[in-house]
């Protein structure tokens, strides 16, 4: 029996959001758009908040909007996110992204 596995954009966004939260120096995710911002104000935060998946045919790219801790090296945190996302998606989801873009949109004291 031959079959195929399809991973949805929502599943990828959730997995990537979980990965990003585990990276030292990441305080949290920022709303990527107005809808996410309103949901967060209303108390309906989601693990995929701050992750936007774009699709080009059968290929995906991800934009992550993160808030980092004051005093950390933002380039190092971004590099760690990219490396961990690449590794985890390859080993757990069997997929690769065409691009992973990390947007540091805020800095916060912890």
Describe the overall structure.
The protein has one domain (9-108): Cation efflux protein, cytoplasmic domain (Alpha-Beta Plaits, 2-Layer Sandwich), CATH 3.30.70. It is 37% helix and 30% strand. It has 3 helices and 4 strands, in the order αβαββαβ. It has helices spanning 9-21, 34-41, 74-93, and strands at 26-29, 51-56, 59-69, 97-108. Strands 1, 2, 3 and 4 form a 4-stranded mixed beta sheet that branches. It is elongated. The model is unreliable at 36-44 (pLDDT under 50).
Features:
110 residues; alpha+beta; Alpha-Beta Plaits; 4-stranded mixed sheet; elongated
Instruction: Please give the oligomerization state of what you see.
Output: single chain
What is the strand tally? 4
What is the number of helical segments per DSSP (H or I, 4+ residues)? Answer: 3
Distance between the termini: 52 Å
**Tally of distinct domains:** 1
Structural class: alpha+beta
User: Uncertain segments of ≥5 residues (pLDDT<50)?
Assistant: 36-44
Provide the CATH top-level class. Answer: Alpha Beta
The CATH architecture category equals 2-Layer Sandwich
| Main beta sheet | 4 strands, mixed
Order of helices and strands: HEHEEHE
What is the average per-residue confidence, as pLDDT, rounded to a whole number?
85
Instruction: Give the full name of the CATH homologous superfamily.
Output: Cation efflux protein, cytoplasmic domain
Basic shape: elongated
Radius of gyration: 14 Å
CATH topology: Alpha-Beta Plaits
Q: Kindly state the percentage of residues in helix.
A: 25-40%
Strand content: 25-35%
